[in-house]
Write a structure and sequence with these properties.
Order of helices and strands: EEEEEEEEEEEEEEH
Number of helices: 1
Radius of gyration: 30 Å
Largest sheet: 4 strands, mixed
Shape: rod-shaped
Distance between the termini: 99 Å
Strand content: 35-45%
């Protein structure tokens, strides 16, 4: 049965304008934002989604159709640091949003061979057990006594002479 005979259908010429939905903070999310340093590449999982109308569930957007990852994004990294992923709307979406993740190294240098050289002298052999550790800092209280960034064969020796440190604040 043809139900259109009950209606008068009129066609008008006009322009249909589709307004792009802007991407906003919260549309780009990471499954995890802090990673432990492993020495290998870390590639965080991320999702780009958009709530299209109030009260509705977010729709997952498609890379290449709805957004692109910008060239300055770091989607995979292996070194300790803070990295940013940025996406730019495409097609029915506009704007740019970014999210950051970090790779942290909580490895501590192993200090062995601490010896007491007398009342004012302490000697320590620092053994660097993590090949990615880039610096060892020696502090007396909050004062940095020395910072070392070059390790010969993963080890470094240092002697603190308490008399010198007490007299001039260094060793």
């Amino acid at each position: 049965e043809d139900v259109t005979e009950n209606y008068n259908i009129t066609t008008l010429n006009g322009t249909l304008t589709v307004t792009q939905k802007p991407l906003a903070a919260g549309d780009l999310t990471l499954d995890q934002s802090v990673f432990e340093h492993t020495g290998g590449n870390i590639t965080p999982a991320y999702t780009v989604s958009k709530v299209l109308k109030e009260g509705a569930q977010a729709v997952t957007l498609t890379e290449g159709t709805d957004y692109t990852v910008t060239a300055d994004s770091v989607t995979s990294a292996s070194k300790v640091g803070i990295y940013t992923i940025t996406v730019e709307g495409k097609g029915n979406y506009s704007g740019r949003v970014s999210v950051s993740y970090s790779i942290e190294d909580n490895t501590k240098a192993q200090i062995t061979g601490i010896t007491n050289g007398g009342k004012y002298c302490i000697s320590a052999a620092v053994s660097v057990t993590d090949p990615n550790l880039s610096e060892v800092t020696i502090k007396k209280g909050e004062t940095v006594v020395q910072s070392v960034t070059a390790f010969a064969g993963g080890a470094w020796n240092y002697t603190i002479d308490g008399r010198d440190a007490a007299e001039n604040g260094s060793s």
